[in-house]
Amino acid sequence: MNPLTRFPRLNNAWMDLKHRLSHWQKRRERAAETDFDASVGDPRNVLVVVVDCLRADHVGRFGHDRETTPTLDSFDAAAFSNAKAASTWTFPSVPSLLSGRYPHEHGGRFETDPRNLSAAEFPQRPRADVPTLPDLLETAGYDTGMITAIPMAEKAVGERFQHVSVRYTDASERVETARDWISGRDRWFCYLHLGDPHAPLDVPDDHRETFGVPELDDLEDWRFRETTDGDGFETYRDARLRAYDAAVRGADDALAPLLADVGDDTVVVVCGDHGEAFWEHPDLERRLNDDPRGYYATDHGHSVLEEVARVPLWVRAPGVERMESDRAVSLVDVAPSVLRALDADVPDGVSGRDLRDAPDDRTILCEETAYGYNQRAVWQDGRKLVSVPETGTRLAFDLDGYLEGDPLGAVPDHLDAALASFGGGVEGGERMDVDGATQDRLEELGYLE
């Protein structure tokens, strides 16, 4: 264990310096590997904000019964309550968001089944020749910066940015860092990743009372991960949900000055990179997967069910109507939508669609879990198929509400065909590397044992 963890400020400064030095070296190596080119006809500043683990059904505007997101509720943008993450954990999801490609297309994924990230079995990184928003906008003269509280985001695509700041701090500090970085720059692309709703939760003191968060053991992390049997489960579950909502509210509060700062001509995207499970489907998860940790129905990265796959998405960009929509869209739609808003060409091989003209009857994919077997889900026409290729398990669902109910008796042919259309995909890049101090932090975040 890193002894500096007893001194959070000093540890954060040391970790930030280490990440900057590592980033500098990776940038030098990357310069010789890639040759991207892009031109922007309508140069606007771009802000992408990811709130880790943010579920769509915990957003006030989308019907949640607690006031978790007053800032985002009032944000004048297209608000999508049914966006699907390309993956249900950060490492594959963020490259999909920034490239417009699914994990099997950008290569940031595991090579084999079963997976056990908790035992420090790390995935391959995205292919160097896959262009992302920071790659393309840098060639068009933008300053590009990543400010993140989650190291998995930096491990996936950090070297794509000119500037990186990784600190394990709350949303208010990360937002202030982003505002400082933006200040005085002429043309910029800023990626900001907040970690407050990710375990261990960062619960603001002033919202513990707001949401009635009680004092219970392990509330910022998890209990009842192997089974929901035992005294105190319902009390703990209620308290854990309240603590999660308070953490979401802390992130939302911190975003208020940033969203007020950026001009109306700035392209702004806000979303979750994946959701979070709170004991919705323990039996169904056991039917679909064998988690090497023995954990079911909590956290994320272990299934592709709606609680972890469905996220909120806000987009403010030229030509994107400012409205509220529950139609199914995907986070792979972000990159092409941003590029089209800037009057820039969308690279070949992008699966995402510009949100201005994405068809309602399209097929959407989610894949690449981190524990147990890889799972793939496809959505089409209000129905969903979950497939586990390694075991041959396939279950289909009608999605009448927010979550899956009982599986259908048989898998409809059109869902079979939709899944088959995606193919196997490409080989990824080099394996993700992790130093000792970052491994300590990944253990705190629950990725590793």
Automatic annotation (TrEMBL):
One Pfam match, given by its short name, reads Sulfatase
Hydrolase as a keyword of this entry, yes or no, is: yes
Q: Where are the transmembrane segments?
A: none
What GO terms are given for molecular function?
Answer: arylsulfatase activity
Q: Which UniProt keywords apply?
A: Hydrolase
The residues covered by the Sulfatase N-terminal domain are 44-343
SUPFAM superfamilies per record: Alkaline phosphatase-like
Q: Does the keyword Hydrolase apply?
A: yes
Family matches, as InterPro entries: Alkaline_phosphatase_core_sf, Sulfatase, Sulfatase_N
Q: Which family does it belong to?
A: Belongs to the sulfatase family.
Q: What is this protein called?
A: Sulfatase-like hydrolase/transferase
Q: Which organism is it from?
A: Halorussus gelatinilyticus
Q: What is the lineage of its organism?
A: Archaea, Methanobacteriati, Methanobacteriota, Stenosarchaea group, Halobacteria
